[in-house]
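Tutorial, part two.
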Amino acid sequence: MTRVLHLLNYAGQGGTEQYIRTLLQAMEGQGVQAELACNEAGPLAQWAEARGLPVHSLAMASPFDRGAVKALAALCRDRKIDVIHTHYLRENYIALQAKGKVPDLRVVYTYHILTQNSLAQRVCNRLLSRRQDAVVANCTAGARQLVANGIPQGQIHLIYNAVDPTQWQDPATTLRQEIGAEVGDFVLLFAARLVEGKGHAFLLESLAQLRENTAHPFRLVLAGEGPLRQDLESQTQALGLADRVTFLGFRSDMSNLYHGADLTLCPSESETLSLLLLESLACGTPVLATRVGGIPDIVTPAHDVGCLVDYGDRAGLAAALETVMADPAQLARWGANGPRVVAETFSVATQSARMLALYEGRNDPRWN
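Running the prediction step on this input gives:
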């Protein structure tokens, strides 16, 4: 039995937390005993406790919080932890320092956000990398950025974000009835927090241009909550799109939404490997996304599941949507390819097996 402690600051309900939940579920019955430690509890901590997983409170004020290092080392000794799996840089630094007090610990770090580290962080990365057992990039762009951030290439393992294809096979949906879509309406879906960087304003401006370019009826469904909701609703009104855009708020019935849409969009300014796109493809709903971060790992000519546009190119996005809406055969081909691509390349069973190899210190193909 390998005892793994997942360490993060806030155990909330974002993409990182979804990644952890998916990993924990995939590793049930695989010889892994999982625990969670966090600075601030939230929905993920509640979910873990409901499943009977130990959840520990660990105050972490800074990357070099001596109290946190001491407390984490004591926790690992007490709980007989074999592996600390960290999910952000601060927690990784604390775990690597704790390893100095518990030498048999393994520390695995997953790099979730494409960010350029500061000079001080790059120096710390180089110094502390001597204690690092493995660093996981969830896309090739992330692997390249890790090298630029000072992580030795030999420590980097490419393990894609993944989904369980079996969870997305039920085609039942009530979305079109809910939004009052009429026969012939082309339904677009974008599900993300309403925050900067996700591309909501860019998408709305592109749809205003699309409306001028085509008579084909379309509807946009926005799922998610966030601080930009009021601004985006005002923008929708100002662009004359109020009759075309529906704000659904936070939704947990994502399969219902994917199966009810004709196309899933991801107009983000920055992304790693988008779970939104993988889930949509698992449902057989094709995708149109921006050419950023890890998205080109998913939407490739070989996969043939959708198309890419440049972020900020409103005319390009509008033209791509107009082309897609006019070509149902292409749309059907993309949709048919989606579940196969997910099963072959982005299945949680395959990717979690590679993570288990890292936990156990077994050889695993690395990114190069």
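The mean pLDDT is 94. In part three we will examine how such features are distributed along the chain.
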